Amino acid sequence: STGMALSLVLRSTANELRLANPTGPEPKYVVWCRIDQKTCLKCVAAAGLEAVVVPLRPATSPKTPKKPQIAAQSEEGPLDLTPPKYFVQSHADDIRAAINGCPGGASSVAAVLTTTSCFAPRLPDNVLAVARLCQELSVPHIINNAYGLQSPSVIAQLEAASHNGRVDAVIQSTDKNFMVPVGGAVILGPSKVVRAASKLYPGRASASPITDLFITLLAMGRAKYVALAHTNRLDLLHKYFKPKVIAFAASRGEEVVWDQRNDISFGLTLRNAWRSSSKPSGVTQEAVVAAAIAVGSKLFHLGITGPKVVFPSVPSGTEGSKGITAQQTVSGLTFPNYGLHGSSEHCTDCPPMLIFACAI
Question: Phi and psi at residue 226, in whole multiples of 5°?
Answer without folding.
Answer: -60, -40
